[in-house]
Amino acid sequence: MVKLMIVVGSVRPGRVGLPIAEWVAEAARTHGGFDVDFCDLAELALPFMDEPKHPRLHDYQHEHTKAWSARVAATEAFIFVTPEYNYSFSPALKNAIDYLFREWHRKPVACVTYGGASSGTRAVAALRPVMAATGMVNAMAGIEIGFVATHMHEGAFEPTDAHSAALAAVFAELAILAPELAALRTRLFG
Length: 190
Known about the structure:
42% of the residues lie in helices and 19% in strands. The chain has helices at 17-31, 41-44, 63-73, 91-98, 121-133, 161-189, and strands at residues 2-8, 34-40, 77-83, 108-114, 137-138, 143-145, 152-153, 156-157. By secondary structure, the protein is α/β, with parallel strands linked by helices. The radius of gyration is 16 Å and the shape is globular. It has one domain (2-189): Flavodoxin domain (Rossmann fold), CATH 3.40.50.360. The strands form 2 sheets. Strands 1, 2, 3, 4, 5 and 6 form a 6-stranded parallel β-sheet that branches. Strands 7-8 form a two-stranded antiparallel sheet.
């Protein structure tokens, strides 16, 4: 089974990203090919990046960073669930990514974004160079949820058939990429 971390990128009270991520996690568990680690950045509560040394050195001083490092290092694939804020992705997600460097290398990432008319498209566009800079491999499959409020009912996310089909494509791609990239990491980094 592929170790998959689903990261809830928004930390705002009342965020719709949490029920969307819960839908993704439940679908991943039902899929059967994933060992799911559900990471809510609001619960993780990383402070604003406070390590004195650059993450590429992998010389962490704080226990919260060491714990985050171990959790990400043990993960083989990621799904980032993030809103679009001002033509970009959530600052909490950026902070969580910036804490680490080599732990992200050659691991596949898919994005589930949401927003209004733009569906979070610009969040993914802003996230791609960050993923590339840290060595992540951007999965082509993803989900962009437009007019997200229309899919929320009594605090739960209600996906359309198109959302479910897109999520199935995400799972299919991550299931292929994760073991292939694990083999590459072994060859590259030992």
